[in-house]
C-alpha cells in the first residue's frame, strides 16, 4: 500500500471518499465491540476452575499448622510468600501476601507515604510543600489516576527500548527533593511491552536522589506473562539490586495472580526490605487483622509452585498468542507502508501500543466509538489524560473472541486511515 504522506491532494481526496463510504457501511453494521481494558477472556478464566475444588472440607491448615479460617497472619501464609518469592526471584522474608488486588496495595502504599514518615524520610509526603512523581510515558493509566487523585504532580519521561529515559530520570531525581518516586512496569510494560534492560535497573537502583525517601514503585504485573515460551524476558531481583547499591529501602515491588487465575479473586503481594515491611505492618495491622488466608491456601494447592504457574501460563499464551498475531497481521497488511501508523510487536504482556498520525488519536477513538467499538480513551496512557502529540492508542486484544477481534481491528484500521487522510488534507 503506498504511503499516504506521498499522495497528492487529488489522490487523498479520492481515497477519503472511498474510506467514508466504507465507514458508513461499518456504522450501519450495528457492531458492539469493547477493547477498553486488558481483561482475560472466559476461556482463560476457565483454566483456573480447579480453584473451586482445590480445597476439601478438611483442608484448611497451612504447612506450619496455622488454621487459615481464623484471624491473624498479617504477612500471609508462608507457602504463599514462597510462591511469590519464586516468581519474583527474591526471598520469602521480603514478601507480604494480601488480598486480590496489587493496585489496592499500590494505592494503600501511596496513602501511607502521604500520611506517615517512610524509613529514611524526614516527614510524611503529605506535609511537603510539593510532591512530584516521575511517570514514564506512555504508561499505565491507573498508576496515573492514583497519583492524580492524591494531588501528586506527575512528571512525564519518555520510554525508550530499554525502559524510561534514564538520563532524564537521573537528572530529575538528583536535583529535585520534591520528586519522591517513579512508577515502573519493568517486564512487558503497559502499554508498549518493553522489558527494562539490566543497565536501566542498575541505574534506577543506584542513582542519586535529592529526596532521602525516594521510592521506586515496581509494578511487576507481567513477570510470567510470556506470549512465546521460548522467549521469556526478565529483570534482576530489584530488592537485591537496591540493597547492593546501598539503597536497601528504595523499592516497593508488587505482583498478583490477577491474570494467572481469576482476575477478581486472586492474591496479591508486596515485596520490600525489612524496614519497609515493618513500616507497612505498623499501618496494616490497624487496617486489618489479617488477609484471606483460605484464598492463599487455595492458590497454593492449585498452582503448587513456580513450575505449576509456568504450566498454566503456557496455556494462557496459547490462547493469547493467536489474538496478538491476528491483530498484528491485519495491521501489517492494511497499514504497512502507509506511513500513518507504527506499533510495537510485544513478546508478552497484554497490550499493543499504536502510534497514529500526530493529532489524530482522539479522532480515531471517536470514530471507532461511533461505529460500535469502545477503545481506551486516547490520552489515558499519559498523566492527566493529555497526550501532547495526540498519537498513542492502546489496543487490548485479550478479551474479544478471535472473530470479534478481527472485526474490531479491521474497524480500527479503517478509522486510523480515515482520520489520517482527513488530517493530511487539512494540512
Could you say which structural class the secondary elements and strand pairing correspond to?
alpha/beta
- The whole-number mean of residue pLDDT values reads 97
SSE series: HEHHEHEHEEHEHEHEEHHHEEHEEH
Q: Count every helix, treating DSSP H or I runs of 4 or more residues as helices.
A: 13
Relative strand content? 5-15%
Please outline the major beta sheet.
8 strands, mixed
Tell the overall outline. globular
Rg (CA only): 23 Å
Unreliable stretches covering 5 or more consecutive residues: none
Number of strands: 13
Q: What is the terminal separation in angstroms?
A: 22 Å
Helix-residue proportion? 40-55%
Placed side by side, the strands forming the largest sheet appear as 2-9-8-7-6-3-4-5
Describe this structure in words.
- The protein has 427 residues and is α/β, with parallel strands linked by helices.
- Helices cover 41% and strands 14% of the residues.
- It has 13 helices and 13 strands.
- It has helices at 9-28, 42-46, 78-88, 102-115, 141-149, 166-175, 198-206, 238-244, 274-287, 293-303, 306-335, 361-370, 402-426, and strands at residues 33-35, 95-97, 132-137, 153-160, 163-164, 179-184, 215-219, 251-256, 268-271, 341-343, 352-356, 373-375, 392-395.
- The strands form three sheets. The chain has an eight-stranded mixed β-sheet, with helices on both faces.
- Helix 7 (198-206) links the parallel strand 6 (179-184) and strand 7.
- Helix 1 runs antiparallel to helix 13 and helix 4 packs parallel to helix 5 (141-149).
- The protein is globular, with a radius of gyration of 23 Å.
- The model has no long low-confidence stretch (mean pLDDT 97).
Amino acid at each position: 500500500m503506498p504511503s499516504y504522506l506521498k499522495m497528492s491532494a487529488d489522490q487523498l481526496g479520492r481515497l477519503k471518499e472511498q474510506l467514508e463510504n466504507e465507514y458508513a457501511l461499518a456504522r450501519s453494521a450495528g457492531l458492539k465491540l469493547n477493547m477498553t481494558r486488558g481483561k482475560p477472556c472466559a476461556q482463560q478464566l476457565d483454566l483456573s476452575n480447579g480453584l473451586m475444588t482445590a480445597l476439601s472440607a478438611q483442608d484448611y491448615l497451612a504447612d506450619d499448622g496455622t488454621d487459615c479460617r481464623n484471624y491473624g497472619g498479617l504477612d500471609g501464609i508462608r507457602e504463599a510468600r514462597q510462591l511469590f518469592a519464586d516468581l519474583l526471584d527474591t526471598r520469602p522474608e521480603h514478601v507480604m501476601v494480601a488480598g486480590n488486588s496489587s493496585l489496592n496495595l499500590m494505592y494503600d502504599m501511596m496513602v501511607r507515604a502521604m500520611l506517615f514518615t517512610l524509613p529514611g524520610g524526614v516527614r510524611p509526603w503529605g506535609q511537603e510543600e510539593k510532591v512530584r512523581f516521575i511517570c514514564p510515558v506512555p504508561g499505565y493509566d491507573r498508576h496515573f489516576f492514583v497519583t492524580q487523585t492524591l494531588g501528586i504532580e506527575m512528571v512525564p519521561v519518555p520510554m525508550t527500548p530499554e525502559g524510561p529515559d534514564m538520563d532524564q530520570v537521573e537528572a530529575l531525581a538528583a536535583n529535585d527533593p520534591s520528586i519522591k518516586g517513579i512508577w515502573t512496569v519493568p517486564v512487558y510494560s503497559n502499554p508498549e511491552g518493553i522489558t527494562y534492560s539490566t543497565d536501566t535497573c542498575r541505574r534506577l537502583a543506584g542513582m542519586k536522589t535529592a529526596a532521602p525517601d525516594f521510592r521506586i514503585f515496581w509494578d511487576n504485573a507481567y513477570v510470567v506473562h510470556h506470549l512465546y515460551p521460548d522467549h521469556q524476558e526478565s529483570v534482576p531481583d530489584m530488592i537485591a539490586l537496591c540493597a547492593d547499591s546501598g539503597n536497601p529501602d528504595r523499592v516497593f515491588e508488587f505482583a498478583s495472580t490477577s491474570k494467572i487465575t481469576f482476575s477478581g479473586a486472586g492474591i496479591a503481594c508486596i515485596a520490600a526490605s525489612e524496614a519497609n515491611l515493618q513500616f507497612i505492618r505498623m499501618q496494616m495491622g490497624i487496617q486489618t487483622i489479617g488477609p484471606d488466608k483460605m484464598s492463599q491456601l487455595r492458590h497454593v494447592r492449585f498452582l503448587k509452585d513456580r513450575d505449576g504457574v509456568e504450566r498454566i501460563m503456557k496455556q494462557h499464551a496459547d490462547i493469547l498468542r493467536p489474538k496478538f498475531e491476528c491483530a498484528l497481521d491485519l495491521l501489517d497488511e492494511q497499514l504497512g507502508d502507509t506511513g500513518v501508523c507504527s506499533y510495537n510487536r510485544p513478546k508478552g504482556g497484554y497490550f499493543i501500543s499504536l502510534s497514529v498520525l500526530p493529532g489524530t488519536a482522539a479522532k480515531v477513538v471517536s470514530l471507532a466509538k461511533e461505529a460500535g467499538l469502545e477503545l481506551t480513551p486516547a490520552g489515558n496512557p499519559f498523566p492527566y489524560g493529555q497526550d501532547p502529540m495526540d498519537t498513542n492508542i492502546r489496543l487490548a486484544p485479550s478479551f474479544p473472541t478471535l472473530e470479534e477481534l478481527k472485526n474490531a481491528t479491521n474497524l480500527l484500521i479503517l478509522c486510523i486511515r480515515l482520520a489520517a487522510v482527513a488530517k493530511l488534507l487539512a494540512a
